[in-house]
Design a protein that fits this description.
There is one protein chain. β22 (644-648) and β23 (651-655) form a beta hairpin. Strands 8-9-14-13-10-15 form a six-stranded antiparallel β-barrel. A four-stranded antiparallel sheet has the order 18-19-20-21, with no helix packed on it. Helices cover 31% and strands 23% of the residues. The protein is of the alpha+beta class and 753 residues long.
Length: 753
């Protein structure tokens, strides 16, 4: 008889297998096995919000196999992730497999290391039903909002739309920032910089500050104001009025939590939050590092957390490494303790490396580029968080010129401390910058090479990026660590928000839906209401509230608003803006507008149905290859005309403008973010007969790499070659035909309501 351990993902199962002996079998549920039905609400709102769960379609064979394994095991351990969602998955597994939920069969670990897993096996507990109920309440609440609101949007705006509870708030945040930008009126202001030289020939730049008499600050609001300063400077000498030297201590940033990791990965690595969490999941679940580091290792602690707590063992390990690598002076007098914000879940530690001795550079060859960069970011941030403060020598030089005062400020690093390893980024350019100033004494007279006035205008507030939106959501208590990425992914995929570089911009559709939601369902899109709902869901986890009480209080007002809105709002009341193009309909002369169809956006005549003319847009689809917009001009190989860039079902392509007389086209290959294992060039998507998709090296036929299976950035743990995802299957196989490695993968996740 064997002991059975059930986890969510095959990758996690593969890692844990190496930590337990032959008496254990580790299998994966591949996420949830039960959920609410897709075809109906699945929530009995008249009977204490009782949920109707069913086995997820396509999981029947897996559930039968898990039942068979559970029946033959003498002990079962449910080892899903250590959070609400993981607790709910364990509860659903217990119900689907006929496991007693009162048994001591639930185990959790914050890091997937041999010690943590074996210790967890020794201390099983019951499933935490309060934690499960908290997850259920969130799921039921989001289902009710999604299923009840979506038909209202179909009726009033357009068919096919959907609404979400937290997603609607996030869209409103982005819409309101766009309104601020439109309403912003720039104000003029001026600066005057003096380019000065000391008696010893050293140069410095000093900026106009204010009045010399009392050192008060003075704003220059017009060219006339600036001209007065320049005139005074041209007729007066520059004399050092005061030199202030000081010392400033700068403390390191705390270790990462989910939100700060996503923000910093966006700033430093240019990762979208979805990419950050995918790579973090890989690092958490385990990477094969070879025999030198003990085989498969989970490299970081659990990545969905808002706690800043660090274990004593991790602090001790960090201290040992810092003192050995940098010296005793780089470690503070006492270990650093960071205070977790009020209301945070303290079940997990902050995000840190599982083993600080596994330095990023030592395992770089074992990791993909993304894995290495994110692991290094996490490792550097954690070690720096435990290091000494940096000591800065500051200097402020006040320079008198007639009745005006100019000022120069700067600092130098006296002792680097944590700055020897890591410095946190900021979301704006107004951060502190080192400026080395020459040695100057009070009373020194400086000569002016030039005095330069410059006009400026105040800037509108910046659009939200993923980093700044996540920061705002966290500050307002909207959502939780596990929800930030889905929130952004969903509002973009639904067409309410679009990306422009790093910026998030509302679409006309997003603005119309937000306005409607604010008018008809103010609570749903209210920041404070949404934050208070998070607190109520937390209270269920704490056992002080119930599902029925929290949902009942919400549903009473929501159902009344819904009934009133259905009765009073029609599609005629909604003015949905259209996006115009520069294309002119050749049939009726109207300026064509953008429409969205089955295969993406296209240009259509606004006089439909009288005029049914349509044509492809001549710009690349935003979801297609980013390099398409930068492609050079291409001549038609048949008639020599300058081809135009269009989009179709299979992505961006060049088309001859003389269609239909000339039907020549040329597809633009789409990259997939994976390098060719043979030559290092990009792997691209191509299409064969009957438009069947396959992959090849962009240098084909010089490089012969091609495959029907999808190449990945993952490496085979047996031989180190590339792993490929089998076409039509949830299976990873090694590219090397002589290697037999295979591993199951999780099926692609579906969007929740």
């Amino acid at each position: 008889m064997q002991k059975l351990v059930i986890v969510e993902s095959p990758a996690k199962a593969h890692t844990i297998k190496g930590y337990l002996g032959s008496g254990y079998k580790v299998v994966a549920s591949k996420g949830h096995v039960r959920d609410l039905p897709k075809s109906s609400l699945g929530v009995d709102v008249d009977n204490n919000f009782e949920a109707h769960y069913i086995n997820i379609r396509g999981k029947g064979d897996l559930i039968r196999e898990l039942k068979k394994e559970a029946k033959g095991a003498d002990k079962i351990f449910l080892a899903t992730d250590p959070d609400r969602e993981g607790e709910a998955i364990s509860w659903h597994l217990a119900n689907a497999l006929g496991i007693n939920t009162e048994e001591m069969n639930r185990i959790t670990f914050n890091e997937i290391t041999k010690g943590a897993v074996r210790e967890a096996i020794k201390h099983p507990r019951k499933i935490d039903i309060d934690l499960v109920n908290s997850q259920q309440a969130r799921r039921l609440l989001d289902r009710i909002v999604g299923y009840k609101l979506s038909p209202f949007l179909w009726k009033t705006v357009r068919s096919g739309l959907s609404a979400g509870r937290v997603q609607s708030v996030a869209t409103r945040i982005i819409v309101e920032r766009e309104d601020e930008i439109r309403a912003f009126v720039p104000k003029e202001y001026w600066t005057v910089d003096a380019n000065l030289v000391t008696e010893k020939g050293k140069k410095l730049i000093s900026r106009f500050y204010g009045l010399a008499l009392d050192s008060s600050k003075l704003e220059l609001k017009s060219e006339a104001d600036a001209a007065m300063v320049v005139a005074e400077a041209e007729n007066s000498s520059f004399k050092v009025k005061d030199v202030k030297n000081g010392k400033k201590m700068r403390n390191p940033a705390p270790p990462f939590i989910t939100s700060t990791m996503q923000q910093e990965a966006s700033r430093k690595l240019n990762f979208q939050s979805q990419r950050t969490m995918r790579v973090a999941q890989e690092l958490y679940e385990g990477i094969n590092l070879g025999s030198e580091f003990g085989g498969v290792q989970g490299l970081i602690t659990y990545m969905r957390t808002d706690s800043l707590r660090i274990s004593d063992e991790a602090k001790a390990a960090a201290r040992e490494l810092i003192c050995e690598k940098y010296g005793d002076s780089y470690y503070p007098a006492a270990p650093r303790v960071y205070k977790t914000k009020s209301g945070a879940q303290d079940a997990h530690e902050a995000i840190r490396p599982s083993r600080v001795d596994i330095e990023p550079q030592k395992i770089k060859a074992k990791l993909s580029s993304d894995q290495y960069r994110l692991y290094k970011l996490i490792w550097d941030r954690f070690i720096a968080s435990q290091m000494s403060s940096a000591e800065l020598s500051t200097v402020q030089i006040d320079i008198e010129c007639g009745k005006y005062l100019f000022r120069s400020s700067g600092y130098t690093v006296k002792f680097p401390g944590f700055l020897a390893l890591y410095e946190e980024s900021t979301d704006d350019a107004s951060g502190e910058k080192a400026s080395r100033l020459p040695s100057i004494d009070k009373g020194d007279v400086l000569s002016a090479e030039s005095v330069v006035p410059e006009q400026h205008f105040t800037e509108p507030p910046a659009r939200y990026t993923e980093a700044t939106l996540i920061k705002f959501l966290e500050e307002k208590g909207i959502g939780r660590p596990s929800t930030y990425t889905p929130i952004i992914t969903i509002i973009v995929s639904r067409g309410y928000v679009k990306r422009q570089g790093k910026s998030l911009i509302p679409t006309p559709l997003g603005e119309v839906v937000t306005k409607l939601m604010c008018e008809r369902f103010p609570d749903i899109v209210d920041y404070r209401f949404t934050a208070s709902m998070e607190d109520k869901l937390d209270s269920i986890e704490g056992g002080s509230s119930t599902i029925s009480s929290v949902l009942g209080e919400f549903y009473e007002g929501f159902s009344r608003e819904l009934e009133e809105s259905f009765a009073s709002v029609t599609r005629d009341d909604i003015d949905l803006p259209v996006e115009e193009t520069d294309l002119i309909c050749e049939k009726c002369g109207a300026k064509m507008i953008v429409k969205e169809g089955r295969f993406g956006k296209f240009a259509a005549c606004p006089n439909y149905p009288e005029c049914k003319n349509t044509k492809p847009l001549t710009k690349p689809n935003e979801n297609n290859d980013e390099k398409a917009a930068d492609m050079p001009a291409v001549k038609c190989e048949k008639c020599g005309a300058d081809m135009v860039l269009r989009t179709g079902r299979y992505g961006s392509f060049y088309a001859c403008p003389n269609y239909p007389e000339c039907k020549f086209t040329k597809q633009i290959a789409k990259t997939i973010g994976v390098k060719c294992p043979d030559c290092g060039a990009d792997i691209v998507v191509k299409y064969g007969k009957n438009r069947t998709q396959f992959f090849s090296c962009e240098k084909y036929p010089e490089c012969k790499f091609s495959s029907w299976d999808t190449p990945t950035n993952e490496k085979c743990p047996n031989c180190g070659d590339m792993l490929m995802k089998k076409k039509g299957k949830n299976l990873l196989v090694c590219r090397n035909s002589e290697c037999s490695y295979k591993a199951e993968t999780e099926p692609e996740s579906k969007e929740s309501e």
